[in-house]
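fold-stage: in
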Amino acid sequence: MKKLKRSARLVEMTQYLLFRPHTLIPLTTFADRYSSAKSSISEDLAIIKEVFELEGLGELLTMAGAAGGVKFIPKVPKAISLQFIKKLCEKLAQPERILPGEFIYMSDILGQPSIMNEVGKMFASAFAGRDIDVVMTVETKGIPLAYATASYLNLPVVIVRRDNRVTEGSAVSINYVSGSNKRIQTMSLARRAMKEESKVLIVDDFMRAGGTIQGMMDLLKEFRATLKGVGVFVESGEVVEHLVEDYISLARLTEMDAKTKHIAVVPGNYFDNEEVQNE
């Protein structure tokens, strides 16, 4: 690559880091890329690190030693996330979102890349310190959320199917009890989709009682995999007891009355810290 002016180099380095989260990049990579001395690259990285932290974009970690380098960890401050979620709660609380059977319509929100981008960044921030191999979700509405989260964690996505597909080869299937209607349903995962003993983060768009997530947790046992966390976009606060106890939610549906067309949505347990709520 041709030698750039420092201002141009800073812009290009920033973009390079943003598109490679959770990836260790040796200083020699930048030095060779820009035909610059490592000392100059180190000075540039110090500037980028300061801007990342001031603007709440994340952390730039420096690893010392021969095999060292820098690693960008996307993180968004809870105070900033809270303001975004509050606005999203207002949007979710629109009366016309109530569907027959007391379901809430969220497909338009799940289909907006800009919103999923922010939500994925929040989950990536919440689970940044955990050793994770893959992000798992169940088809279909959780897929955009899983990909948004995985992009910031730089991880592959594993999709659990409602039924086994011939195009995916042999699969492991289990029966689980749906938490909402107590019906026995089936989910399956192709054997080639995930290595055994993987460390897994489960994300889902909505959790009522938690039957679907519990089913995915049971499916992990068939792969001797380890659950490293559960992230839920919206949880139902009307359920007395969830089947899943340890999880992070970004929004909580507290009230929904089909007759009066009233919905109440508040920030989830990720923001339960009183200091954050008052900021």
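fold-stage: in (second)
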Amino acid sequence: MGFVYLEHALTVRDADALSISGNFIAECGSCIELVGSGQASKVTDNLIGAGYVGFSIFAEQHEGLLVTGNNIFPRGKSSVHFKNVNRSSITANRLHAFYPGMIDFEGVNKENLISGNHLRRDVEPWAPMQPYNNGKDDPYGLIHLRGDNNMVTANLFAFHVPAGSVRPSGATPVIIRVESGDGNHISNNRAVSNIAATRVLLSSTTTGTKVLDSATASEFQADTQNHTFRATP
């Protein structure tokens, strides 16, 4: 199906075994919103583009959700937003955004897999839209992780933002930010950046995080001692 110029293109509440596949959902305020709760559903092979204050893909209190094979383009305030989602997968998507928080976790999200995605972040090229953004600064991270025992592995990041466009001015952008939680695993991720960027940042409230081959020593920041780190050679 095609959804164009709608404030909320597709909102589904409390659905199990739902399949959203093969749709064009663009120029909408929000594209796909899975609200309430759900289990064993999938969002696959869609073309998606939301507005700068809207969701591209939003899911709350889901279990076993598969988000894969989607091509998600600007200007959504996030590409994939999980709120209290467990044992779900974000895999093999192409994500393009003009703002941080491309994959954004809210609440407590457990045992999710983020793997094999290509994330491209650059700046808004169209002058009439340049005054607008999603309200998040670049240290927020392209991936903002909250929860326990999640795995972020084998993703490719392309960060191409001029130094003068970084928010706030003079800040160091972050690629993967682990904001809270225990036992998260970050491994074998690759980031290409045109300016200095922190590849992985661990906030002070995190514990037991493993960071392997995803940053050099100079590209890694930990505000806690409770972690394991193996630098990219």
